[in-house]
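Hi support team,

I submitted a single chain yesterday and got back a structure, but I'm not sure I'm reading the token output correctly. Could someone confirm the output below corresponds to the sequence I sent? I've pasted both exactly as they appear in my results page.

Thanks,
R.
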Amino acid sequence: MGKVAAMLTLASKLKRDDGLRGSRTAASAADSTRRVSVRDKLLVKEVAELEANLPCTCKVHFPDPNKLHCFQLTVTPDEGYYQGGKFQFETEVPDAYNMVPPRVRCLTRMWHPNITETGEICLSLLREHSIDGTGWAPTRTLKAPVQNHRRAQTVGFRAASSANTGSLLVFVQQ
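Hi R., thanks for writing in. Yes, this is the structure output for that exact sequence:
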């Protein structure tokens, strides 16, 4: 099933569930499991917007089209230090989204100041609380982390939030 079909399926489910919610007379445990979360409602809109504005160097893949909260982003930079590379990032959007940031991990092993050897990404944007004031805010959308991944691959890194000091030293010396 294509991405658009998956989004339409989820959008249809949201509408159907809203209709059911209005006609219910008694709540039961089974009904509560069919409710659509705020996260999923936001994701239907944000994923459509993300895919419509994705640069040609980025591709989004949903391993399970019914779970918009788990997806992979592939970045293939066409300029900069990582030009010609292909880097995969895994994004998981928690239930408390958009009050908390998505969890992002780099699946491709790489030498980058803001990515640890285990794939953890050190960016203020992905922190719920940040000392520099640029952390996650409920007004941000999924576009923000995607734009940051792309920028980090083409422009460079943020020394203030370096997770891999060995690679930071190499970048600074060049």
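A quick pointer for reading it: Helices lie at 3-23, 29-33, 38-52, 143-154, 165-173. Let us know if anything else looks off.

Best,
Support desk
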